[in-house]
Specification:
This protein has 247 residues and is of the alpha/beta class. 47% of the residues lie in helices and 11% in strands.
């Protein structure tokens, strides 16, 4: 290879210059710049060369964790008092997902696009300001999903207020369960598509709704979850018997 021959010749000249000192000193100085260029090319080919911006993004994924939201920790994780300990400020993205019963096997595409080490987290890690990521699995946390009125294959964009006296901004963004990609999810941030969605309001708001302020939202979650366990035919029988009784 010409590359190798040129490099060997240059090294040979250096050795000769070191032995003879004075006669080839000028030639050695003239070869310094091209040698540095050759060594720069060699360094770029080595596995431990400086990371490119994409490599840095991949490395940052280790720190960009996805927090699982549960009935026990949601008030702590999504708390205004927790903002100071977060690396990414007040913005949270909570993916609502589920399993066979709650999502009817339709969440696989969304979960693949959301995958922490392959898709969305890699792209988000390359952004200067990235949201905190969390996931709520309705198959494992049915009570909390019922308390929030949260359904799978949706992304909850949550902006925590600076203080508890202010309202929490929540936008529920539907994701296409058949064709959602990491780029689609990323555009929620880059194109600010979440701003086009009306904020969540009403008495069922998980943080600011009247039911939540009265401390009844989790009890309501248990009640709705219990009703969901009752077979449909049982409810029909109860309605039938009740109607006959009143008649």
């Amino acid at each position: 290879m010409r590359f190798s021959i040129s490099l060997y010749l240059a090294l040979g000249v250096l050795v000769a210059a070191e032995e003879q000192k004075n006669p080839l000193q000028g030639l050695y100085e003239n070869l310094q710049e091209p040698l540095q260029q050759w060594f720069g090319k060699i360094k770029a080919l080595l596995p431990n060369s400086p990371a490119t911006p994409i490599n840095e993004a991949v490395l940052n994924v280790v720190e960009h964790t996805i927090e699982p939201i549960t009935l026990e920790n949601w008030k702590t994780v999504l708390s205004t008092t927790n903002i100071a300990t977060l690396d990414n400020g007040r913005e949270w993205w909570v993916l609502i997902t589920g399993g066979n019963k709650t999502c009817h096997r339709a969440c696989a595409t969304v979960e693949k696009a959301w995958n922490a080490k392959k898709e969305t987290a890699v792209l988000l890690s390359a952004l200067p300001s990235k949201p905190n990521l969390a996931v709520l699995d309705c198959e494992r946390e049915p009570v909390l999903c019922n308390a929030w009125s949260a359904t799978p294959s949706n992304l909850w964009h949550i902006n925590l207020p600076p203080s508890e006296s202010e309202k929490t901004d929540i936008r529920v963004i539907p994701l296409n369960s058949t064709s959602a990609t990491a780029v689609d999810i990323l555009e929620i941030k880059t194109k600010k598509t979440w701003e086009r969605v009306e904020p969540l309001t009403g008495m069922l708001h998980p943080f600011d709704g009247q039911i939540s302020k009265l401390g009844l939202n989790i009890y309501l979650g248990y009640l709705l979850w219990a009703f969901s366990l009752i077979p449909g035919w049982t409810l029909m029988l109860l309605i039938s018997f009740s109607s006959r009784t009143f008649m």
